[in-house]
Structures are given as C-alpha cells and as structure tokens.
C-alpha cells in the first residue's frame, strides 16, 4: 500500500514481493534543474544531440545548423534528425537525405518508398521504418537487410542491439532485441493499475535505453525505460514542457 510518498506493508509476503519488483523513481523536472549550454534564436523546428554532445537543429528559416555555425542546407518540413559521427541523416517531407556530419555538405538522397521514421544504427548506419517493414542501411545508404515485417508503429528508436517501436493509438511499445523474442509493453499501465496513466507521443533513444514524452493523466511528462522495457524514471515537466528533448546518440 502507499501512504503519500511512503510504502506500508501489511504482510511478510507483500514485503517479499516488493523486493523482487523494481519501483521506478519519480523525478519531476523544471527548467532550472538543467544547465544552459546554448541560446538558439527564434523558433526551432528540429533538434538533436550528436554522439559527441554537439547540437544540431533547424531554425525557422529551414536551414540545418550545428553548434552555432553558419546556416547550412535548406530542408523541408523536418520529421527526424539522426546525427552520427561521420554521417548525419535527415528525414523531411522531401525524402531521406545524408549529410557530412562535420561540414553539413549534402551527400545524397536515399530513395525508399513510404518512409515513416528513422533511427540510428551502428557505424553511422540507419534503421528505416517503412510501410513495407524495417530496412537496415549502412552509412553510405546501401541496403544491408529488409524490408522485415514489423508491428504497426508510428515511431522508432534504437539502443545497442534493441529496436523500439511506438504505436501511439494503442499506447504500446514493442521491443525487438537482437536474437530474442519481441516484447510488447503497455505504456498506459507501465507503473501499475493504481498509478497515473501514461499516453506517449514521441520516442527517442537515451543513454540507458529509451525516452518517451507524453502525458501522465493529462499533464506533460516523460518516461525512461531500459532495454528490457523496465521503467527507471518518470515525472512531469514542472513548468513549460520542452519543445524538443533528445538525448545524445549512443549508437
């Protein structure tokens, strides 16, 4: 049982069960909990953190920028930025494009039909979620595998050898660990039937697994999961919710 912020156990069996269950930490976040690293002028339509901790974003003028440098190539409506160590991938309404990570020079376009979302893979490669399944690309845009059938999903992320697929309508996250069976997590009751209900709308990789943004009983918040789908931290944004909250790429 819970009593405010404490737990009361009526029987030894309840205590024994609690010892085997991971209880995630609640950690509401405020703007002043962090450290300001850069001020971006004007609205931002796309934002991502590179493996080296650098920042990549698209301003209101549609230009791709990195770490405060001059404006780079103009993009369409950005759907996802995936920065790598040598290659940066961009999915916008014109298609899937490759850029040199250091110079932002456009390297080329990968022609795949029905691309819905993308996630970084090892060695600057890419996982591409299409209407026909999952496609694996290398850093040069060549197909390494697929399309492989996958469950219906709106968002994709990857951490290590595990791929995560978010289906917004059903409120489920499907984990696809390499060499193991798929696991489906009901995010709506991730903390238990008596806890706040979570409705996720975005998914990205994080340093220890995956980060989802959405709402806890209608309040904007976040949820961190490990590769096995176990929650490690959750909370609400105690103040204005961030427009973008990516973690540095770990692939």
Chart the SSEs and their pairings:
Layout: E1 2-3, E2 6-7, H1 12-19, E3 25-26, E4 44-49, E5 55-59, E6 64-66, E7 78-83, E8 87-92, E9 95-100, E10 106-110, E11 115-120, E12 126-130, E13 133-137, E14 143-148, E15 155-159, E16 162-167, E17 172-177, E18 183-186, E19 198-206, E20 209-216, E21 219-225, E22 231-236
Parallel strand pairs: 3-22
Antiparallel strand pairs: 1-2, 4-5, 5-6, 7-8, 8-9, 9-10, 11-12, 12-13, 13-14, 15-16, 16-17, 17-18, 19-20, 20-21, 21-22
Give the amount of beta strand, in percent: over 45%
Termini distance? 40 Å
Calculate the mean pLDDT score and round it. 87
Report low-confidence residues grouped into runs of 5 or more: none
| Count, helices | 1
Number of DSSP E strands: 22
- Overall, the morphology is globular
Task: Outline the structure in words.
The protein has 251 residues and is mainly beta. 3% of the residues lie in helices and 46% in strands. It has 1 helix and 22 strands. The protein has one helix spanning 12-19; strands spanning 2-3, 6-7, 25-26, 44-49, 55-59, 64-66, 78-83, 87-92, 95-100, 106-110, 115-120, 126-130, 133-137, 143-148, 155-159, 162-167, 172-177, 183-186, 198-206, 209-216, 219-225, 231-236. A hairpin with a 5-residue loop joins strand 11 (115-120) and strand 12 (126-130). The longest helix is centred in the first third of the chain and has 8 residues, at 12-19. The N and C termini lie far apart (40 Å).
């Amino acid at each position: 049982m819970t009593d405010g912020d404490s737990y009361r156990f009526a029987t030894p069996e309840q205590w024994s069960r609690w010892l085997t269950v991971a209880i995630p930490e609640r950690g509401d976040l405020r703007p002043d909990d962090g450290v300001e690293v850069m001020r971006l002028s004007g609205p931002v339509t796309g934002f991502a953190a590179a493996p080296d901790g650098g920042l990549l974003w698209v301003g209101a003028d549609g230009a791709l920028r990195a770490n405060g440098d001059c404006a780079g190539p103009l993009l369409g409506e950005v759907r996802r930025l995936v920065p790598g160590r040598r290659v940066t991938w961009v999915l916008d309404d014109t298609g899937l494009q490759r850029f040199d990570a250091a110079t932002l020079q456009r390297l080329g376009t990968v022609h795949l039909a029905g691309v819905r979302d993308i996630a970084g893979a090892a060695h600057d490669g890419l996982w591409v979620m299409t209407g026909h399944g999952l496609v694996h690309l290398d850093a040069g845009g060549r197909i390494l595998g697929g399309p492989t059938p996958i469950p219906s999903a709106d968002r994709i992320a990857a951490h290590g050898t595990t791929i995560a697929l978010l289906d917004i309508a059903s409120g489920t996250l499907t984990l696809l660990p390499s060499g193991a069976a798929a696991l489906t997590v009901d995010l709506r009751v991730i903390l238990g039937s008596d806890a706040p209900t979570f409705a996720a709308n975005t998914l990205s990789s994080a340093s220890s697994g995956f980060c989802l943004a959405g709402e806890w009983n209608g309040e904007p918040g976040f949820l961190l999961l490990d590769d096995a789908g176990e929650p490690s931290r959750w909370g609400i944004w105690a103040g204005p919710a961030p427009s973008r909250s990516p973690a540095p790429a770990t692939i």
